[in-house]
Amino acid sequence: MSNPQPFSMIRPTTKTPFHIDFEWWQHHDSNWRVYLFDFLCPEHQKAFESKAEIWIDYVDPQTAEVHRVDGLQHTLMSHCARQPDFLLRETSLINKIFKLLLANGNRPMTPEEMAPAVGRPAEVILRTLSGPQVYHGIRPCRG
Length: 143
Fold this sequence. Notes:
The protein has helices spanning 22-28, 32-37, 42-47, 71-78, 93-103, 111-118, 122-129; strands at residues 18-20, 55-59, 66-70, 138-140. The protein is an alpha+beta fold. It is globular, with a radius of gyration of 16 Å.
């Protein structure tokens, strides 16, 4: 039995699921909170104006596990990203993909699943996400 290929050696396809790896992002981009702040709805931009870190206890509805999560990130995903106009604003392909993943609760999605929502072919999405640069922590899922 052979060992599976290391994560970095696997070549993604249009059927490879991607997600936002927030841990990667927090370690590689010191402005990650500023970036997330820009996607908050006006109500929550006021609430997070101080940009102070707020941590909350989140109970996973599937497993009932309690996780300590960043309040801004949680608010963005659980409220702001669910607003009707969240995905409608014109923006770059990477921002559209990022917002789509947020709106879906960061559930892994393949380029094929993303294509209709972002209005670009799955192959273009794949080329963008599988290049040498990692954009906003959007990476293939392990496994």
